[in-house]
Amino acid sequence: MTGAAKFLAGWAPAGSGGRENGGGPALLVLTDRRQARRYGLVATVAAAVEGGARVVLVREKDLPAEKRVGLVQAFRALLDPVDGAVLLAGPDVELALRSGAAGLHLAAADPWPARGHDLVIGRSCHTAAELADATEAGADYATLSPVFPSLSKPGYGPALGCEGLETLVADVPIPVVALGGITPATAAACVSAGAAGVAVMGTLMAAEHPGAAVAALVTSLAPAPEREAPVGNR
Predict the structure, then answer these.
(1) Nearest to residue 57, comparing CAs of 7, 9, 12?
(2) Model confidence, pTM
C-alpha cells in the first residue's frame, strides 16, 4: 500500500467528524512556490514536515514536467522517512508514476485518468453536484472549497462556512477535506462539521514560521486530551 493510501485509509467518510482510526491529523499541505518565496518551496515544505505534515500536494502546474518530477522526489526524500506521501496535481498518470507520487489530485474540470494503476485519486469540488460526480467516478477523497474567504484561490463563489460545509458533506460516502481560509482557529470546527480533515496553502506557504504554523494546525486537530502547546521550527 502506498504512503498516501495508508494515510487516507484512516480518513473517516464525510459527515463522521474526522479520523476513524487515529494515526495523526488529517492535514493536506498544498504547495505554491510564489507564496513560499521567504524560504523557498523545498525549505518551506521541509519545515512543514518537521512540524507534522505528512501529505503534500505538489501543484506548480505551470512548471515543466521534469521540474515537477524533481519537486515530487525532493518532497519524497522528506516524507518517506516519516511514512508520509506526495500527491501530484493534474490527471497525468504517467508523470505521477515516473515521479514516484502516490496519487493524483484532479481539478474539478480535469478528465478522469485511465485505470490500471494504484494511485490515490482526489478531486477538487465546490458544489454538491461536483461531490456527487467525484463519488460516482470513484475518487478516494475530495476537497471542498472555499470554506472560508481565501486570498489564495478567489473566484469559486461565496465562502460556505461551517454550516454550508456540514450540509454538503452530510451524505457523502468518501472523505472530504475542507479547504479555503483554514487556520488553527477554524480547523477543529471544520472537522466537527463533518470534514475528514483540512487542507492549507497560503496559511503555510506564506507563514513566517511554517513549521510552527503546521504544528499549531496539528495541535488544533488532535483530540482534546492530546492537545499541547504547538511546537515547530522555521
Answers:
(1) 7
(2) 0.89
